[in-house]
Design brief:
By secondary structure, the protein is mainly alpha-helical. It has 18 helices and two strands.
């Protein structure tokens, strides 16, 4: 028994010594790793005090506490999201008061329409020029220049009633009749976001970019209502003074962009640097044509057309239409928050096309609704799904073309959509005559073209590899 007890005691002591040796080794490894991280000039990671090892005297590195989206956006991304929010707030405010201001200045309705057409033409021309030359001239430089022109236009609209002056200001100053940012800013900004943010987070980043703008545009509309209550200036003049101030704010934000926002010039060994040309690559032309078809189909069912049709088909009142379109503008902004999750589970192409196709099917059902309530329910369901594709489409455009062509792709697709949207309401107006009006011909044609776009995009790009999104 004594021999057995001694053996057990000896084994226990041996195991204890082994554990102590292993613990000492772990401590030494930890100290060695901390020695590698210690600031220059510090003596040692651990100190011995009374035979015990103490923690280092300098602060230990901490785990990051910033939200993931905040880190994904980066400095340049956050500046661009803020700049677009400021800009769209201005569009939301001035678009409500622009027509009223021009009418009070004595301009005829045809003059108001001509000014809006000139403003659209100016945005189209600027988008074309920036799409071809922004990378060569410098992205920060052209964004700053456009912001300065926007501020000048705001000042001219606030202080002048001369129609020729306002026409010139509308052409150079990206005056927008809505919160849709079909301006030269958007193409360059999207290229910078795609370049400076992680490829696997493009959908999340573009969702933030669009939702912030939509929320700011809605707040801009509320600001216009507030300006209508003040008495120190006419509401339109006050709105454009605010517009000029917001434009100056975007200039300050653009000035803070880092050199990382500029186009990257990649040079292979033995090759000369790639020269910036004016030829639009074939993949960009293909995407621009398809997105123009989508924009044309959507333009057949714009808010003005829908309001006219609801009033004539169901006898909807102005108050009812106001409530309907308030909800119709709010729901898409909320629905866009689901885009990153949908893209992570199904991919960018599915996130683009599945909600878009469902929205077109719902639009085709609206003309067959027997009552106003049913038609409104179908329309709101359609509106909820109709804008989910926007962030996914922007991320897909960035992934489907080479990095050197991203500015051109974003600008040319925005340009194509702008032109298509400006043409489609005229086609919708032609279809709202005679028996075609009661049948909802613009809505049916828009749904059919939209579904054709979905099918064409799927057949063309179903094998295109895009980075996984989370």
């Amino acid at each position: 028994m004594d021999t057995l007890a001694y053996a057990l005691i000896w084994r226990s002591d041996a195991e204890t010594d082994a554990i102590r040796a292993l613990a000492g080794l772990v401590r030494e490894m930890g100290a060695a790793r901390l020695d590698q991280r210690r600031p220059p000039g510090k003596a040692s990671a651990f100190r011995r005090v009374d035979g015990l090892r103490r923690a280092p005297p300098w602060p230990m590195p901490k785990a990051p506490t910033t939200p993931p989206l905040y880190r994904d956006l980066g400095r340049d991304g956050r500046l661009l999201v803020a700049a677009r929010a400021l800009r769209t707030f201005g569009y939301g405010c001035t678009s409500v008061l622009l027509a009223q201001m021009l009418t009070e200045d004595g301009d005829a309705p045809w003059q108001v329409g001509l000014l809006l057409a000139v403003a659209s033409a100016g945005s189209v021309a600027a988008s074309l020029v920036l799409g071809l030359f922004a990378d060569a001239w410098g992205r920060r430089r052209v964004l700053t220049a456009c912001g300065c022109l926007m501020a000048v236009a705001g000042v001219l609209f606030a202080v002048s009633e001369s129609y020729p002056v306002l026409i010139a200001a509308a052409f150079i100053g990206t005056i927008s009749p809505s919160t849709n940012d079909n301006t030269p800013f958007s193409g360059v900004e999207q290229a910078v976001l795609a370049q400076t943010c992680p490829a696997g987070r493009h959908t999340r980043v573009f969702t933030c970019y669009n939702v912030a703008a939509m929320a700011a545009g809605a707040l801009g509309g509320l600001a216009a209502a507030g300006l209508g209550l003040q008495t120190w200036a006419t509401p339109g003049d006050a709105a454009f003074v605010l517009y000029a101030g917001l434009a100056a704010g975007t200039v300050l934000l653009f000035r803070r962009l880092t050199p990382d926002a500029e186009a990257v010039r990649t040079v292979e060994r033995g090759d000369a640097p790639e020269r910036t040309g004016t030829r639009v690559p074939a993949p960009v032309r293909r995407l621009a044509a398809l997105f123009a078809l989508d924009a044309f189909s959507g333009g057949l069912a714009v808010q003005a057309v829908l309001a006219w049709w609801f009033a004539h088909r169901y006898g909807a009142t102005t108050a009812q239409l106001g409530l309907v379109f308030f909800a119709a503008n709010l729901l898409p902004a909320l629905a866009q928050l689901t885009v990153p999750f949908l893209a992570a589970r199904r991919g960018l192409l599915a996130a683009m096309l599945l909600p878009h196709a469902a929205a077109n099917v719902l639009l085709a059902c609206v003309p067959f609704a027997p009552t106003l309530g049913t038609a409104v329910a179908l329309l709101l369901a359609r509106q909820t799904l109709s804008k989910i594709d926007v962030p996914a489409r922007q991320a897909f455009t960035a992934a489907a073309v080479a990095p050197a062509h991203r500015t051109t792709a974003a600008s040319m697709t925005s340009l194509a959509r702008s032109i298509a949207v400006s043409v489609s309401p005229m086609a919708a107006t032609a279809l709202l005559t005679g028996p075609l009006a009661l049948l909802g011909a613009p809505l049916l044609l828009g749904a059919a073209l939209g579904l054709g776009y979905d099918l064409t995009i799927w057949r063309t790009y179903r094998t295109t590899a895009t980075p996984a999104d989370a």
